[in-house]
Design brief:
alpha+beta, three-stranded antiparallel beta sheet, 5 helices, 15% strand, binds zinc ion
Length: 152
């Protein structure tokens, strides 16, 4: 049986593997030299498998990040489209956002700030409500829709 220290040493050491260059290096459109390398996967479910990868520039990583962001934006757009087509609120209110809410006095300027702050600090794991009161025509519904969109 291995001693605890030996096991810990093995677990904390970085995986040792050597890479083998495949083919000729080339210059990416970003100007960096890129090499195609292969290595044997030292750990994990793919242990022993030969992995091929490009080294030298971040273009592939950047593209991957862009794809993920684009996918996320598409999902958000879908949620907004669902809101627009299934919501029972009147068409004018569907356009409501914080950006197009125009407070007519200092109290409403503060109400807008408070509502925006509510969205900013809202925690999905510990959701808390908000109460909006005020006279007719001051924008309670507008602010409510803005909050709703801010939380989507
Ligand atoms: Zn590149």
């Amino acid at each position: 049986m291995k001693k605890f220290n030996q096991v810990m040493k093995q677990l904390t050491q970085p995986p040792i593997f050597t890479t083998k260059e495949v083919g000729e290096p080339f210059i990416c459109k970003c100007g960096e030299e890129v090499r195609n390398v292969e290595f044997v996967q030292p750990k994990g479910p793919l242990t022993g498998k030969i992995i091929s990868a490009y080294q030298g520039c971040k273009c592939e990583d950047i593209q991957l990040a862009k794809d993920i962001l684009q996918e996320r934006e598409a999902k958000i757009e879908k949620v907004f489209q669902g809101f627009d087509s299934h919501s029972l609120i009147n068409p004018q209110l569907k356009q409501a956002t914080f950006e197009n809410y125009q407070p007519t006095n200092q109290q409403l300027v503060q109400a807008k700030k408070d509502a925006m702050r509510y969205v900013e600090i809202f925690d999905r794991n510990e959701p808390r409500g908000i109460v909006i009161t005020g006279p007719y025509g001051t924008g309670k519904s507008h602010i409510s829709v803005s909050i709703c969109k801010g939380l989507m």
